[in-house]
Amino acid sequence: MSSKAAIRAEAERLQAVFLASGASVAEVDLLQPAATLLELYGEDIRARAYTTCDPDQGEMMLRPDFTVPVVQQHLAGGSAPARYTYLGEVFRKQPAGSGRAREYLQVGYELFNSTVPAAADAEVFALFSEILLPLGLTPVTGDIGILLAAVDSLSTSEARKSALRRHIWRPRRFHALLDRFTGTLAPSPHRAALPGAAGDRFAPLIAAAGPAIGVRTPGEIEARLARLQEEAKTPPIAAAESDVLDEILSLRKTLPNAFDHLRVITGDLPGLDGAVCCMARRIEALDAAGVNVTDLPFEASYGRTMMEYYDGFVFGFIDENWPDLPPVAAGGRYDALCRVLGSGQDARAVGGAIRPERVHQMQSRLAGSG
User: Fold this and answer.
1) DSSP secondary structure of 316-338
2) Candidate CATH numbers 3.40.50.460, 1.10.260.40, 3.30.930.10, 3.30.565.10; the one for domain 138-183+238-318
3) What's the distance, CA 218 to chain centroid?
4) What is the pTM of this model?
5) Are 26 and 353 in contact (CB under 8 A)?
6) If you ran DSSP here, which 8-state letter would residue 47 be given?
7) 48-95, pLDDT tens digit by residue?
8) Any idea what DSSP says for residue 135?
9) Spans in the chain with pLDDT lower than 70
10) 201, 195 in Cβ contact below 8 A?
């Protein structure tokens, strides 16, 4: 097992490369307000974050990631273009018996640039590729923006599209919703049985249910019942559109071949055109940055089980000897997160993080086999 001192030394070596690339150091608190993270990710984040309570600040979380506080720090006083690097511990709950680290170092690089997103994507990916090249890792790229555009292109209600967008990062829930919206799963008989009168039509139903349990008000319950009733009336998503969405989700090719495939698919889902054009500009920028795009793997679903803030280009570097472990490095674009945290401010960003203990372990293994 690698010593903490050796891992920190590796982290400092990696951060030195980011500093040499023009980044300034971002220092953020170890304890983060839970309210911000809960608002962004919902109650699901409790399953992977350690929480505590401060007498003055209320509920707090041990830092599960650096991106949110770095974005907040930048929006509070930074100006684009800006480059930041950070180094420190993050904390993640792990499944029982998984053996995965609950506390580990991250070193990262974040680029804020509102003018040329494709060039920023290429800069970050090329920098990570250069740093990690000696390790012989397998790179993989994806694009959450393609998936979001595909959902937005569906011929269905905005409520259904909103639900699918919300669960892009939860594949099981996403597919369960899609099955329901396409009619693959029969709707609950209780939905069809809801009363149809106007006004306070649900009041008798609520009263008959007995005493209230929980914090929802009668008005919130009525609104939810009304949405369910409206959902029951919505026609199913066409099988042809669902098939195209499944085709996109399962797409795994080299980057140029994936682009050609997606360009053909825009004939069935024209709403994809903007995202596919962004992908074309990114390919050109990657090529200009010296990345070998010809053989670069692309998986349309890559990044769907990571933190939910990615909404565009995503990437990772994987150790093929340990495919079940998290990537040695990963990152992506998170423009929507910047808009949410900045209350609509025009900020765009892309970045990534490296796990230095994995880098140190691989270097030791390579040295031992040399």
Assistant:
1) EEE-TTSTTSPPSEEEEE-HHHH
2) 3.30.930.10
3) 34
4) 0.86
5) no
6) G
7) 899 999 999 999 999 999 999 999 999 998 787 899 999 999 999 888
8) G
9) 1-2, 185-216, 224-232, 306-307, 369-370
10) yes
Q: Which residue is associated with the tokens 């994995």? A: 358
Q: What is the rounded CA–CA span in Å between residue 257 and residue 366?
A: 33
118: nearest Cα among 143, 135, 138: 143
DSSP secondary structure letters along 240-292: HHHHHHHHHHT-EEEHHHHHHHHHHHTTT-GGGHHHHHHHHHHHHHHHHTT--
Contacting residues for 60 by C-beta, under 8 A, at least 6 apart = 31, 32, 33, 34, 51, 52, 53, 54
Residues of the chain with CATH 3.30.930.10: 138-183+238-318
pLDDT reported for residue 200: 57
Vertex 334 angle, CA 103 and 19, to 5°:
65
91 by Cβ neighbours in 10 Å (0-12 / 13-18 / 19+) ranks as middle
Residues 6+ apart with CB under 8 A from 262: 146, 248, 251, 272, 276, 279
Q: Provide the terminal-to-terminal Cα distance of the chain, rounded to the nearest Å.
A: 19
Contact 289, 130 (CB under 8 A): no
CA distance 284 to 256: 11
* Nearest by Cα to 334 from 141, 113, 122, 151: 113
Kindly state the DSSP code that residue 301 receives in the 8-state scheme.
Answer: T
The answer to whether 144 and 310 have CB atoms below 8 angstroms apart is yes
Are 24 and 83 in contact, with CB atoms under 8 Å apart? Answer: yes
The predicted structure's pLDDT at residue 45: 84
Q: Is the dihedral of CA 8, 10, 16, 17 positive or negative?
A: negative
Pair of tokens at residue 215: 């914090």
Mean pLDDT for the chain overall: 87
